[in-house]
Each structure stands twice: as C-alpha cells, then as structure tokens.
What does this fold into?
Amino acid sequence: MIEGGWGYIWAAYGVTWMVLILYGIYVFKSPNSHLQ
Amino acid sequence: MKWFHISAVMGVSLLCIGHGLGLFVAPPEAMMGDVGRILYVHVPTAWVALVVYLISFGAAVGSLWFGRLTWDATVRASVEVGVVLTALLVFQGSVWARPTWGVWWAWDPRLTTTAIMMITYVAILIMRNAIQDSPRRLVITAVATIVAFVDVPIVYFSVKWWKSLHQDHSSPDTVSDPMILPLRLAAIGMLLLALGLIGARRKTELDRLNQEVDPASLPEPIEALSVPGESE
It folds into this structure.
C-alpha cells in the first residue's frame, strides 16, 4: 500500500474547489449579471 | 431565485458532504492507501464532464434544427463548463498519476483521447469568439460541437478497447460498499453544480446575444422548410 500522499490529495481537492469557486463567481457575477 | 441558483446551491452542498465523507470517513483504498481518496473528486468530474458534452451535443442538434439563440447559448454555455471540468479532470488525474504510476503524464489512450477532447472544445470556443456574423456563428459552432462529440464515446470506451495503464471504469458496482455513498453524493453534487453553472452561463450569453443579434437574420428553422411540391 502506498503510504501518505496527503499533499497530492489536498492539491487535487484544493485546486478543484478553488477553480469551481472562482468560475462560479465569474458565472454568477459576470458583467451581464444585472440582466438576470 | 432561479432554478440554476437552486441547482448550484444543492450541488455545492452535496459535493461538500461527498468530499467530506470521502476524505475523512471512507477507508483508505487497499492498494493506493489514502491517495486513493482522489477517486471522490476525479471520477465525478469525469462522469459529469462527459454528461455536459452530451448536453452540448443535444443543444447543437437543437441549434441546427430550430436555428434559435436559446439553443446557441446552451451550446456555448455547456461547452465552456465542459472545458472547465475537463481541465480539472486532467489536473486531478496528473496529481493522482504521480504517486501511483510514478509519472505526471503518460501517453495512455484514456489520457491522450481526453487531452484531444479538451483541446478540441477549447478550439470551438476560440473559433466561436472569432466569428462576428451571428447566423454563421450559430451554424459553425453547432456543426463543430457535433463533430467534436465523436471523441467523447472514444474517451469513455478507451479503457475497454485498449487495456493499458489507466484503470477500468470506476462505478458503484466496482468499488467497495463504504466508497459508494461518497462517490454517489459527489457525482450528484457535481452534476447539479454543472447544471447550475450551465443555466447561469446560458442566461448571460442569451441576454448578450439578444442585444447584438437581429432575430430576423437567423437561418430558417429546418422544420419550417418545405419540400418542393409539398406546399401545394
């Protein structure tokens, strides 16, 4: 069994959540959002 | 509050629960240990990316068939969300490959076809942005999206057709019982979030298109065209 590896785990989850949050802000708060 | 806001909020909530269970409650994977927990973020991202491209394919067919901006905006929104998910998918896979395969990247059929898929859809977005004429943009985007979809089933079946480095499909049928719930919750959460993002992006894009396009300039809906001699 591979020991440890939490750095890889946090990298995968951290980057995923960061991108989803930033893209979510871009989508829901875009310059045209006043039209929604 | 619109349906896509509700979908996104529910999606984020389920994703939090699924990832929390996967990280802190589910047991370590037998061979990979803790690093196997990347499963709960990587596999749902992969499933939903392919579903989103299926949505873009359906919207592209609708776009050609009806010639309406609503379909065109759905194609644009779903391709963009699909590209974001595929970029995340490739990153997660690379981070997972390093401790398990010993490399960040391998020219494995699954990885290669996924990279081709991402580059193809990015090219569609770039090409679309370069076309100023709305009717042409609608048709060319739809045709390109339909053609690009050819690679999606190849990505899905690549692990069956070419048995290589990448493992076979992971699903609730192929993982241990304690892994099923976090996997399912994360997958449903990611799907609802993706639908919410598509809905919001589609609305913004449609508003923008309606401001710039004269609806009379769009191509005739295919269903409204008549065969010569049939109209008499």
Chain B has one domain: 3-216. DSSP finds seven helices and no strands in chain B. The radius of gyration of chain B is 20 Å. The longest helix of chain B spans residues 177-212.
